[in-house]
Design a protein that fits this description.
The complex is a heterotetramer of chains A (737), B (110), C (508) and D (172).
Chain A lengths: L1 H24 L7 H19 L10 E7 L4 E6 L3 H24 L6 H20 L3 H19 L6 H32 L12 H4 L5 H22 L8 H4 L5 H10 L1 H11 L6 H23 L4 H21 L3 H40 L14 E3 L2 E3 L11 H4 L1 H15 L6 H20 L2 H29 L6 H6 L5 H13 L2 H8 L40 H9 L3 H38 L5 H7 L1 H8 L4 H9 L7 H6 L8 H43 L7 H21 L1
Antiparallel strand pairs in A: 1-2, 3-4
Helix pairs in contact in A: 1-2, 1-4, 2-3, 2-4, 3-4, 3-10, 3-14, 3-20, 4-5, 5-6, 5-10, 6-8, 8-11, 8-12, 10-14, 11-13, 11-14, 12-13, 12-18, 13-14, 13-17, 13-18, 14-16, 14-17, 14-20, 16-18, 16-20, 17-18, 17-23, 18-23, 22-23, 24-25
Chain B lengths: L2 H21 L3 H25 L4 E2 L5 E2 L2 H31 L13
Antiparallel strand pairs in B: 1-2
Helix pairs in contact in B: 1-2, 2-3
Chain C lengths: L1 H18 L5 H25 L8 E9 L4 E7 L1 H20 L8 H20 L3 H10 L1 H11 L4 H29 L2 E2 L2 E2 L7 H8 L9 H18 L8 H8 L2 H26 L1 H8 L3 H4 L1 H19 L3 H22 L2 H32 L10 H4 L1 H14 L6 H16 L1 H7 L1 H18 L15 H19 L2 H20 L1
Helix pairs in contact in C: 1-2, 1-4, 2-3, 2-4, 3-4, 3-11, 3-16, 3-22, 3-23, 4-5, 4-6, 5-7, 6-7, 7-9, 7-10, 9-11, 9-12, 10-15, 11-15, 11-16, 14-15, 14-20, 14-21, 15-16, 15-19, 15-21, 16-18, 16-19, 16-22, 16-23, 18-21, 18-22, 19-20, 19-22
Classes of the chains: A mainly alpha (737), B mainly alpha (110), C mainly alpha (508), D mainly alpha (172).
Chain lengths: 737, 110, 508, 172
């Protein structure tokens, strides 16, 4: 049953895309591509739900030889465990809802069928990534989702910003992917296989247990970090995060599906998949990168005005959270947050899409009167507001919004639920539980190991949680509360059609914890072994194993509690009890702290943006340096300049010309260095030295030929004279001598 | 009338042909020279076939010695073909250059 | 017999085409197409029926040719050659179709020369006699010279002569090496006895016989170098590559396709067939991983990848960009071959085939655009995706395949080459991955400049790609996808031969 | 050597042949030269008779005199018009050409005189049967069939080629 189900899940969206591509070659469109794609996704969703029953069976239901090279073979196959099923359901569910939402949102677009075809291709690629049982398959899906992201960000390619953004996204993630590929090469060179777990004890997960010794550990750490590089690119972690805010140039449903719920979460999924090969060093690197990302992105989000960019930075921040969780060993917490985040962030994006759509339709209507031929997505240049070089379209600028809660009640309520969830408002919202699990897990690890690193990470996470609550409520207050700031636009705004609102409601329902419980109370959902992580003093106990044991009704969705702890701890129950106790305590502390921090954030936001007790502008003026820090995206520029200045000192003046930060232009920058200098030099060398030598040889030959050709008179009799005279001479010479 | 008689005649014809080819300023005269050369060759073939080639004996003891003669027939055919093509080329050259003097036709001059 | 038929049908076609009246152009084109379809059908048949349990050459034909030097007309195929034969046979009709409308003068001569070229290429991949091999190698040179020099762009004479001289230079060294091999082919323990031979399988056996003059490692090194430079020009390997951009830019579309699709592969095919199989000891000197000499082959691959990619990034001529990208991609082949292990060599051969398909697509696409806009300046376009969605779609496919997107064929070859190379040359391989990023950069940048953004008003009414052009691209596109999804389809053909080769190399 | 009528006639033919050949290469008027060539060809035909090659002699007369010579005369008429009837000869070229021709002649004569096996090969007076039938058998039936076919194709090709080259170019 398993293999056919997974096959259907993969093939349904692929078929929808293939139909589009084949018809496209004949320059036609399937008229109801939207229904077809949506139907395909719903089929996939149904199959995914059926798969829940199958998790306990064989984890590798299908393995086929993909490449056989005699001595070396690569196989492809399905890997089915609880993580796979969760990812499958998240992807198919969000994808289905986004499909439905898009039927309304993209209505009237000249390339409407293409949009759905691309969404189908994306869904296929993402699902392929999720079910692959080997690194090569994951890498294939990994790059394919990158391609779809490229195609969909650049969907409105007439806009130069979109064309730039899609290129930037592809190239930035590719930098990370190359790191991942090198990591794969290392694993392959060591193990001779890329299968994770092929059922015959020769997968990477089994082989990795056999490693020992310092040399092996250094090597494994490097490999792990390199694999993580792929996740850094795809999940937009610092320092490769700059592409994600730019990716908001794509249509909003795309942002919801790809750049919030699924593709960017693939990085987290990858790290979770590779959990068994992580060493203490690589784990710590991952945790720190995640922590820094969470904090940095959150602070940048505070000062954004583009509603989609706020959400984009929020996404980066939350992804950092998940990385932090997995890096700190809280495997289940990380994946739990991935799931909850997928729903509420998709909801937030779709909600913002609904708001944009409300303004947008007005805009389109406005333009139609004058330029009937214009597409609905061209913007009036005069009304563009500039935000650090990037232009905020007016329908996405929160300074144009306000008071929308009466105009768009359903959108408002659903978005509010999502905001409460992401902010960590206790007990009834899923975001609280998942975030709390992370905080508790990190603090538990810190206390258990007495690890300063993990205390620092906990601090970062806590701070980020507070800031998240602040800026998310800032968004709500600016958009839905207060007086309308732009009366004309406000008047035109309206609630979205049902086809767009229904997905919002479904996602809002999914933001309540009851729903998540269905997947996270399984007994078999527990972290895999990490053979190379050993606690300083104790036998290793996963922080996750203690989560469910807290007092506040955790058993609702807790991973079965003491049982898992004992399994992990093995015979050494004394230590397990110790760890058990520590984690219990940690979770209580973390929960109290997180509630306080979230409350503080919401309170401040309320004071600033709703009651206007304090003036945001006033604070910005007072703390000008801090404000500038956030406004300029944390002055990453300076940081990067500082690192790279030693390498490219002479180049720095050129960079100064662009008042852009290096981090914003890291891809462009590297491209330009190579283009301006290296390529020019190589081109010069090629033309002058290498080619010049060739030409010299030819010239010498040419000159010699010029001399010699005088002999050729063209008169045939002269030739005959010479020939015959020569014959006579030769004969005479031979006769004489 | 030994073999050498014929060879002498043939070599005189050959030399005269060469002389014509080398000195004449008219392409048709050159062609005539070439014909002389070809005739001298044919004469050689026939003469050698008569005097040198081994006899072929057929029932009835008649003696035939003429492999060379057949070669000479082929030679005549070749001469005819060559003359036809040569004259065609001369006509084409005449149209192109307005002259058939070989020293005026020197497009190949380097 | 079938194989001979396949090789010489185009030659027959040339004679027939030359006999047709000059005015009936349609007839000439159709006849040429028919004569290129025959090798394709035979090639498909050979490919499908190829089954090689004993690792011998199949479909052999062996007849004496020049007895005085023991030269034989000896042909046969193994998995490697059947793959490339199929590629050649496939590109034949495609190129004829691509030349359907844009050859403005001397169509008859063009088609005749093209058919002659095809015979040369097919013969080259099937030859098992070193002399025959060389003859076919040179046989491709002459038609190519005329095809570039007569039907090319504004600087065609320059490009054609450059191409001719470069290749000839390589051929001379190759010829010297070949004669050296021949003269030593009957020397055992310093004593010459028996007849000399040009027969490739025999020579491979002799080169592995202890005490044979051919097995001497110094001798092998020099002969290796001779052949290698000959092939390196064809590949082309830095610093012998400057003919390539010129030749590509000047050549007509179909000829660029053949040049990139098949002629470059002749170089790498020669390296596998002669250099690696016949002179493993010579190869070992350059790939044993000690010092610069020991890494030299991998270094050349690395330089090709990085140098080609950076050069491509700097180009503004669409065709030149594709030409430089070819240099970069052939670097992966060299790198994979240098690795000398199963993954590396298989990857390299697969990359040869894939690059043949993908670069053919790219040149065809450039040709389509050039036929419409009459220039190739990348910056002179913009926003074409609005007007030509199908063309844009196919171009995106080709670009993605070329930049190594998984799921398309380019990835498998590149990935296997790199995986193989990493086991032997870690640092060089890691540095070579720069090429992957730069490759993505120049293709995406081109895609942006040509297709994305606002439509350039100059091209308001640029016609969409037509059916004939789609017909030329679709088979290649399908191959790209199929080989990306199921590479075993091609790998099964040659992986056993490669295993055999790897065993020989490992024994050194 | 016995000086008989036969030898007398032989020398006569030889003399006519050589003398007329000399005329071919020396006379200024090209039409005269052509007629002198005709005499030479007849002379050679006569020598063929002495060599008992009766068929060949006839062929020589028919093909050369009847065909090639006429062709040459046509060529003369079509190219020279009235003006170019005279043949230009330059003195230096004449001397050099004469020198080379003489040198060649001397060489050939030396070779003929110094080759021992060619001496004493005199006409033994054997009367041969008429050759025509046998030649017919050889060409059309026996070992020269293939060359004969090839040569006829060659002739055809030459004729077509000649017609193609000499026709007026049709400009597109």
């Amino acid at each position: 049953m398993v293999v056919p189900l997974i096959s259907i899940i993969l093939l349904a969206p692929l078929a929808a895309f293939t139909l589009f591509a084949v018809l496209g070659l004949a320059k036609r469109n399937f008229p109801r591509q939207d229904y077809l794609s949506t139907f395909a996704m719903l089929v996939a969703l149904g199959c995914s739900l059926l798969l829940i029953q199958e998790v306990t069976s064989d984890p590798t239901p299908l393995t086929v030889e993909w490449l056989s090279l005699g001595s070396v073979n690569f196989s492809m196959g399905f890997y089915l465990d609880s993580v796979t099923v969760i990812m499958l359901i998240v992807v198919t569910l969000v994808s289905s809802l986004v499909h439905i939402f898009s039927i309304g949102y993209m209505h009237g677009d000249p390339r409407y069928p293409r949009f759905f075809a691309f969404l189908s291709l994306f869904s296929f690629s993402m699902l392929f990534l999720v079910v692959s049982d080997n690194l090569l398959g994951i890498y294939i899906g990994w790059e394919l989702v990158g391609l779809c992201s490229y195609l969909l960000i650049g969907f409105w390619f007439e806009k130069d910003t979109a064309a730039n953004a899609c290129k930037k996204a592809f190239l930035t993630t590719r930098v990370g992917d190359v790191g991942m590929f090198i990591g794969m090469m290392m694993l392959f060179a060591k193990f001779g296989t890329l299968s994770l777990h092929d059922g015959t004890e020769s997968g990477i997960f089994t082989l990795v247990e056999g490693l020992s010794g310092t040399g092996d550990m250094v090597w494994l750490s490097v490999a792990g970090i390199l694999i993580f590089c792929g996740a850094v690119g795809k999940s937009a972690q610092v320092p490769l995060h700059t592409w994600l805010p730019d990716a908001m140039e794509g249509p909003t449903p795309v942002s919801a599906l790809i750049h919030a719920a699924t593709m960017v979460a693939a990085g987290v999924y990858l790290v979770a998949r590779m959990f068994p090969i992580l060493t203490p060093t690589s784990s710590l690197v991952i945790a720190y990168v995640g922590g820094i990302t969470a904090l940095v992105a959150a602070t940048i989000a505070i000062v954004r005005f583009d509603i989609k960019r706020v959400l984009a930075y929020s996404t980066i921040s939350q992804l950092g959270y998940m990385m932090l969780a997995i890096g700190a060993g809280s495997y289940v917490a990380g994946l739990f947050h991935l799931t909850t985040h997928a729903f509420f962030k998709a909801l937030l994006f779709l909600g913002s899409g609904s708001v944009i759509h409300a303004f947008h339709a007005m805009h389109a209507h406005h333009d139609d009167a004058e330029h009937p031929e214009d597409t609905a997505h061209e913007h009036d240049d005069n009304s563009l507001v500039h935000e650090h070089g990037a232009e905020i379209p007016p329908d996405q600028d929160m300074r144009n919004m306000g008071g929308l809660r009466h105009k768009m009640p359903l959108t408002f309520i659903t978005m509010l639920i999502a905001t409460l969830s992401i902010s960590g408002v206790p007990f009834v919202f899923s975001g609280f539980w998942s975030k709390d699990k992370i905080l508790g897990g990190v603090l538990g690890r810190a206390m258990e190991w007495s690890s300063v690193h993990h205390y620092i990470l906990f601090g970062m996470a806590l701070l980020a949680a507070g800031i998240t609550a602040f800026y998310m409520f800032r968004l709500i207050f600016m958009t839905f509360f207060g007086e309308p700031r732009n009366q004309e636009m406000h008047d035109m705004a309206h609630e979205s059609p049902w086809v767009m609102v229904v997905p919002l409601i479904v996602l809002a329902a999914l933001s309540f914890p009851v729903v998540n419980t269905i997947w996270f109370n399984k007994d078999n959902f527990k972290p895999p072994k990490q053979p190379h992580i050993h606690a300083p003093q104790h036998a290793y106990v996963s922080p996750d194993s203690k989560i469910g044991d807290a007092n506040f009704g955790f058993s609702l969705f807790g991973v079965s509690t003491a049982q898992a702890a004992e399994e992990d701890a093995g015979p050494d129950t004394a230590h397990a009890d110790d760890a058990h106790h520590i984690h219990h305590l940690a979770h209580n502390i973390a929960m109290v702290l997180s509630i306080c921090v979230a409350g503080l954030g919401i309170l401040l936001s309320w004071l600033f943006y709703h009651r206007r007790r304090f003036s945001a502008e006033g604070v910005a003026t007072t703390f000008r340096p801090v404000y500038n820090l956030f406004w300029n995206k944390y002055y990453f520029d300076e940081f990067y300049d500082g690192v790279l200045v030693a390498l490219t000192v002479w180049k720095s003046r050129l960079f100064a010309k662009f008042d852009l930060s290096f981090i914003d232009g890291i891809v462009n920058g590297v491209g330009k260095v190579t283009r301006d200098v290296l390529s020019a030099f190589i081109g010069f060398f090629d033309n002058r030295v290498v080619d010049g030598f060739v030409n010299r040889v030819a010239e010498v030959t040419w000159a010699a030929g010029g001399r010699i050709r005088k002999i050729q008179t063209g008169a045939i009799q002269t030739y005959l004279f010479v020939v015959l005279g020569g014959i006579v001479l030769i004969i005479l010479i031979f006769r004489l001598f | 009338m030994s073999l050498q008689h014929y060879l002498v005649i043939s070599s005189i014809l050959f030399s005269l042909g060469i002389f014509a080819v080398l000195t004449r300023k008219n392409a048709i005269s050159i062609l005539m020279g070439i014909e002389l050369i070809l005739n001298s060759c044919n004469l050689n073939f026939v003469a050698f076939s008569r005097f040198v080639t081994p006899a072929e004996t057929i029932v009835g003891s008649e003696v035939f010695r003429f492999d060379g003669q057949i070669i000479a027939i082929f030679g005549i055919v070749l001469a005819a073909a060559e003359a036809a093509v040569f004259l065609a080329i001369i006509l084409a050259i005449y149209r192109e250059f307005g002259s058939i003097r070989p020293d005026e036709v020197d497009t190949l001059k380097g | 017999m079938l194989l001979s038929l396949m090789i010489f049908v185009p030659l027959l076609g040339m004679i027939v085409v030359l006999l047709l009246p000059r005015e009936s152009e349609e007839l000439i084109k159709r006849a040429t197409l028919a004569f290129t379809l025959v090798p394709l059908l035979l090639g498909i048949y050979l490919f499908i029926s190829y089954n090689n349990p004993n690792l011998e050459h199949l479909w052999k034909a062996n007849a004496p040719w020049i007895d005085a030097f023991n030269i034989n007309y000896h042909i046969g195929i193994d998995g490697l050659s059947v793959t490339l034969l199929l590629l050649t046979a496939l590109l034949g009709p495609i190129c004829v179709l691509a030349s359907w409308r844009n050859i403005e003068k001397g169509l008859k001569a063009y088609m005749g020369l093209f058919l002659l070229l095809e015979t040369g290429m097919l013969g080259f991949f099937a030859a098992l006699d070193l002399f025959l091999f060389f003859v076919f190698f040179e046989l491709t040179l002459l038609p190519m010279y005329f095809l570039i020099g007569v039907w090319g762009g504004p600087r065609r004479e320059y490009a054609a002569i450059k191409f001719f001289l470069y290749t000839l230079f390589g051929s001379v060294l190759m010829l010297v090496a070949m004669i050296a091999v021949y003269l030593n082919s009957n020397v055992i323990n310093g004593v010459a006895e028996g007849v000399r031979t040009f027969d490739i399988p025999t020579l491979i056996t002799l080169a592995g016989t202890t005490g044979h003059a051919l097995a001497d490692s110094t001798f092998q090194m020099w002969v290796f170098l001779g052949f290698f430079i000959g092939f390196a020009v064809k590949v082309p390997i830095f610093p012998f590559h400057t003919w390539l951009p010129d030749a590509h830019v000047e050549a007509p579309t179909a000829i660029s396709v053949i040049l990139a699709g098949v002629l470059l592969k002749m170089g790498t095919y020669g390296i596998v067939r002669i250099n690696m199989a016949m002179f493993p000891e010579g190869l070992a000197i350059f790939t044993n991983g000690v010092g610069i000499v020991g890494n030299s082959l991998a270094l050349l691959g690395f330089i090709n990848i990085v140098y080609g990619s950076f050069c491509a990034l700097a180009q503004t001529d669409f065709k030149k960009l594709v030409a430089y990208s070819s240099i970069g991609h052939m670097g992966f082949v060299i790198l994979g071959l240098a690795a000398g292990n199963s993954a590396g060599i298989n990857g390299a051969i697969l990359q040869m085939f894939n690059h043949g398909v993908i670069s053919a697509m790219l040149f065809l696409l450039v040709g389509v655009l050039y036929d419409r806009a009459h220039h190739r300046e990348i910056n002179g376009f913009g926003g074409l995706a609005t007007k030509m969605p199908v063309y844009t779609g196919i171009t995106t496919l080709a670009f993605m395949a070329s930049l190594g997107l998984p799921g398309l064929s380019g990835f498998v070859g590149e990935a296997l080459s790199l995986l193989g190379a990493f086991q032997e040359f870690e640092l060089i391989t890691i540095l070579s991955t720069i090429g992957i990023v730069v490759g993505a950069a120049y293709f995406l940048w081109t895609l942006q400049r040509v297709f994305l953004g606002q439509l350039n008003p100059k091209y308001e009414d640029l016609p969409e790609i037509n059916r004939r052009e789609i017909l030329t691209l679709v088979p290649l596109g399908i191959l790209t996808i199929v080989l990306g999804i199921w590479p075993n389809f091609a790998l099964d053909m040659f992986s056993e031969s490669v295993t055999n080769l790897v065993n020989v190399l490992d024994a050194i | 050597m016995e000086f008989t009528l036969k030898t007398f006639i032989f020398y006569g033919f030889a003399l006519i042949t050589i003398a007329s050949a000399l005329a071919v290469v020396t006379v200024r008027n090209i039409v005269h030269a052509a007629f002198a060539l005709m005499v030479t060809l007849f002379g050679v035909a006569g020598l063929y008779v002495f060599l008992q090659a009766d068929f060949l002699a006839a062929t020589q007369v028919i093909v050369y005199v009847g065909g090639i010579l006429v062709l040459i005369l046509f060529g003369v008429m079509m190219t020279s018009g009235r003006l170019e009837m005279r043949i230009h000869i330059e003195r230096g070229q004449l001397l050099l050409g004469g020198g080379i021709s003489l040198a060649l002649l001397m060489l050939l004569l030396t070779v003929i005189a110094n080759t021992p096996i060619w001496k004493n090969l005199t006409d033994d007076g054997t009367q041969l049967a008429p050759t025509t039938e046998r030649i017919g058998q050889l060409i059309l039936n026996e070992k020269f069939l293939l060359p004969f076919e090839v040569v006829s194709v060659l002739l055809l090709v030459a004729l077509i080629g000649a017609a193609l080259i000499s026709r007026k170019e049709v400009r597109d």
